[in-house]
Design a protein that fits this description.
By secondary structure, the chain is mostly helical. It has helices at residues 10-22, 28-41, 45-59, 62-74. Helix 1 (10-22) runs antiparallel to helix 2 and helix 2 (28-41) runs antiparallel to helix 3. 39% of the residues are buried.
């Protein structure tokens, strides 16, 4: 079992599963769900606002997309960017 770096910043712990999911593994929904959950617990609203559209696209969830847009507006992003995650 690989060693886990428990001292990694919270945003990095959330970004890692998001990046893995974007690479196209079969478990992308699970990884994106984990990424959003971890980023929601971190102080990094910007990274969370990047992960939520990916999750919305992967799941087809209008609610998650609305949350992503709201968060992007709140954290100073002009609009939620288009997801680069392929829809399943």
């Amino acid at each position: 079992m690989p060693a886990r770096n428990v001292s990694a910043p919270p945003a990095a712990r959330g970004e890692a599963p998001r990046c893995l999911a974007l690479a196209g593994p079969a478990e992308s929904r699970r990884l994106l769900t984990r990424a959003v959950a971890r980023l929601a617990e971190s102080p990094s609203r910007y990274e969370e606002s990047r992960a939520r559209p990916d999750l919305a696209n992967a799941t087809g969830s209008a609610t998650t997309l609305a949350e992503a847009t709201s968060l992007a507006t709140t954290c100073g992003a002009v609009t939620a960017r288009a997801s680069t995650h392929p829809r399943e």
